[in-house]
Design a protein that fits this description.
Layout: H1 3-7, H2 9-22, H3 29-43, H4 47-75, H5 94-118, H6 123-127, H7 144-167, H8 170-178, H9 180-187, H10 192-223, H11 225-239, H12 247-267
Helix pairs in contact: 2-4, 2-5, 3-4, 3-5, 4-7, 10-11
């Protein structure tokens, strides 16, 4: 456990910072953007706003869970790559690590230093008329418990993810086996792809195959390029019979041609 982390220390740090920012960890860039969306939905004081707030909080928690799942299973779980040995893994070149460094610095500090410009007191001066509001929502007083709810869930998701995906994976494995139909249903994305394939892909492919074989090959090619080329070949094969190599055959052909030409001139 942790072998990949030791082999890829810079990638590990970059992924750690990126995951923290993505999940909305307090005071990182992702924290302010998610927090602002959830807060303004709450401040709308409407049923739709409260519904959006609930969905936003649940989504933030689930995003944090699956993000940390990816991080922990990559850097703290067992090494499962059967094609490449762990001893062959190595850090990316500096040309790839350098951009990660700038992105990491941005993820750590841009949210804190630029929050007032984008979503704070000076946001109106920054955005001016590029964003149009039908009804402007005033940033009123928000209960402390609401302010702490999302950050607490995001932080708590870290040990939860580590426990279920690294420390004690048997719990989720047993849950999966107990609810295998539901697991397969969700794993296959509600079978939307299969349904789309049956309703749209297969009928269109069958129709295209029909026009290709019956229309294109059976009619157009048969009586078009292929048919003309076969006709020319047959005529050529018949005409080649006149080429015997004997002078009297060529003289006879010339006599027939001269007779046809004279007959044409006499009649006209």
């Amino acid at each position: 456990m942790g072998g990949v982390r030791k082999k890829l220390p810079y990638t590990y740090i970059s992924m750690l910072i990126g995951t923290l920012a993505l999940t909305g960890f307090p005071f990182l860039s992702g924290f302010y953007s998610k927090d602002a969306i959830i807060e303004f939905a709450y401040l709308s004081n409407s049923s739709l706003g409260y519904y959006a707030t609930s969905i936003g909080i649940i989504t933030a928690f689930l995003t944090s869970i699956y993000s940390w799942r990816l991080f922990f299973k990559t850097f703290h779980g067992a090494y499962n790559n059967k094609d490449i040995s762990i001893h062959e893994t190595h850090e990316s070149p500096i040309i790839m690590l350098a951009p990660l460094l700038f992105l990491g610095v941005g993820a750590l500090f841009t949210g804190f230093f630029f929050k007032d410009i984008f979503i704070g007191h000076y946001s109106e001066d920054f955005w001016k008329t590029s964003i149009f509001f039908l009804n402007e929502i005033k940033h009123g007083t928000i209960p402390l418990w609401f302010l702490l709810l999302t950050p607490v869930l995001v932080v708590v998701s870290i040990p939860i993810s580590f426990y279920y995906f690294v420390s004690n994976t048997k719990i989720l494995e047993d849950f999966k086996n107990t609810n295998l139909p539901l697991y397969n249903f969700l794993l296959n994305k509600w079978f939307i792809d299969e349904l789309y394939d049956i309703i749209f892909i297969r009928p269109v492919k069958s129709l295209g195959s029909f026009f290709w074989k019956k229309g294109d090959q059976g009619v157009i090619d048969r009586f078009g390029p292929d048919g003309i080329s076969k006709l020319i070949k047959k005529i050529s094969d018949k005409a080649s019979l006149f080429q015997t190599g004997f002078i009297y055959d060529y003289a006879f052909a010339m006599l027939i041609g001269l007779s046809v030409l004279l007959t044409y001139l006499i009649l006209n």
